[in-house]
Design a protein that fits this description.
By secondary structure, the protein is α+β, with helices and mostly antiparallel strands. It has 8 helices and 23 strands. The strands form 4 sheets. Strands 1, 2, 3, 18, 19, 20, 21, 22 and 23 form a 9-stranded antiparallel sheet that branches. A 6-stranded antiparallel beta barrel has the order 4-13-16-15-14-17. α5 runs antiparallel to α6. The chain is rod-shaped. The N terminus is likely disordered.
């Protein structure tokens, strides 16, 4: 008896499996099967075995899976009064407002590359005098520090020797030339004296150039030729006007060619570097107005202009560097600060706008819900500039049309719920 029961159950299970895997033979059966919620993985075949196309309704459903819109123009969502209260819907009429297009980005305040200088010395030396302190303002040419350097002493000595050799060679040449002109001197001696003069002149010029390399000016070299004092000291002067922002000068300390002794910065003009996304490159150009704010001074706006747009795109971040030059009002901005920049794309003008909360993403499009006669219609729109919580509508709406600004996500969910019930979407 037990064996008979097991055999009967196995037979019933086999019959049920065969019934579930039955392949429809007619197109009408395929359509019926599709409407009951089953998805076909391949098109039906004719009696000759050639593939046939899906029914029109089936093709439409498969198209939804490839990012196409899932509703048709004219589709509306109808709600009861109770549902409207539950969704807490609010509307706003599309209207014209004054709008200024801007592009926002995060940047960093930097010292202007042409308004800073590092003062160092190309040879080793010892700091003998310090003429400025940290925070002092200096003018171009003001003395900063005085060094004692062995290289300076040797260069001065070589210069005086070359100068003496030149003066001697010059006197000798003039004497031989005078004798030759009177007919009592040999031409050979004149040529020899002329050659010695040229050699001495060349050595003197080389010694002068060495002094210039060490940091001496033409005026200082000329003064040196008058005094004939062998002094190993040299004074370093400010190459630009600005403020002493760093100083490693310590009296008696040794410095080398790798030691940055003093840094001068002119903080009256700074730069702000920001990274813009690739899609925004076409929106910016040189000379464009930029507004800058920093967390240290909330509410205070600093104005500048774009001075440089990089020619190289960062392949990793897909961004490009944009540099803004900005006058530092009150010297409030400091290099190293983070800053929020706002690039002005156009001057203020009238634009059709709605609140940003009205615009929803739908597949590859943007939509709003338009309220008309108590019903809510999804509408595809194209958007433009954004400012102060409003977005510009380029197409898709007319002035005065009411759009849903609160509860629109609930409407979108209800829209697709209704489509599912009607069998338009799987």
């Amino acid at each position: 008896m037990k064996k008979y029961i097991i055999f009967s159950m196995s037979l019933l299970l086999l019959i049920e499996i065969l019934a579930c895997t039955k392949v429809p033979e007619k197109e009408s059966e395929i359509t019926s099967s599709s409407e009951s919620g089953k998805i076909l993985s391949s098109p039906p075949t004719s009696q000759s075995g050639t593939p046939q196309s899906f029914p029109r309704r089936k093709r439409q459903r498969l198209g939804h899976a490839f990012g196409q819109r899932r509703w048709q123009p004219g589709t509306a969502v109808t709600l009861t009064d109770e549902e409207k209260t539950l969704f807490a819907l609010e509307t706003y009429p599309a209207s014209y407002q004054t709008m200024e297009g801007t592009l926002q980005a995060l940047g960093k305040v930097l010292a202007h590359p042409l308004r800073q200088a590092i003062v160092s010395y190309p040879f080793s030396g010892r700091i003998a005098e310090i003429h400025v302190r940290l925070g002092d303002w200096v003018k171009k040419g003001d003395p900063l520090v005085t060094l004692h350097s062995e290289a300076v002493g040797e260069a001065r000595s070589a210069y005086y020797k070359a100068l003496a050799d030149y003066e001697l060679a010059k006197v000798n040449y003039e004497r031989e030339k005078n004798l030759f002109d009177k007919g009592v001197g040999a031409k050979k001696n004149l040529l020899s004296a002329e050659a010695q003069l040229k050699v001495a002149q060349s050595n003197l010029e080389a010694a002068e150039k060495k002094l210039h390399v060490l940091g001496f000016t033409e005026k200082q070299v000329a003064q040196m030729a008058k005094t004939h004092q062998i002094n190993p000291s040299i004074t370093l002067y400010a190459p630009i006007a600005g403020k002493i922002v760093t100083s490693r000068a310590v009296l008696g300390a040794m410095v080398s060619e790798e030691t940055p002794i003093i840094t001068i910065l002119d903080p009256r003009l700074l730069c702000i570097d920001a990274e813009l996304f690739e899609k925004d490159i076409a929106k910016v150009h040189l000379g464009q107005e930029v507004r800058v704010t920093v967390p240290a001074y909330p509410g205070q706006v600093f104005k500048g202009k774009i001075a440089y747009i990089s020619d190289i795109l960062n392949e990793e971040t897909r961004t490009i560097k944009v540099r803004t030059e900005i006058p530092n009002q009150g010297l409030l901005l400091k290099p190293g600060m983070f800053a929020n920049i706002e690039i002005v794309l156009n001057h203020k003008g009238e634009a059709l706008v709605v609140p940003e909360t009205a615009v929803l993403d739908d597949v590859n499009e943007q939509i709003v819900f338009v309220e008309k006669n108590g019903r809510y219609y999804p509408r595809v729109v194209k958007t433009g500039l954004r400012e102060n919580g409003f977005v510009q509508i380029l197409s898709g709406l007319e002035p005065g049309e009411k759009v849903v600004i609160k509860g629109s996500y609930s409407l979108k969910s209800r829209l697709y719920e209704d489509l599912l019930k009607k069998g338009h979407v799987h």
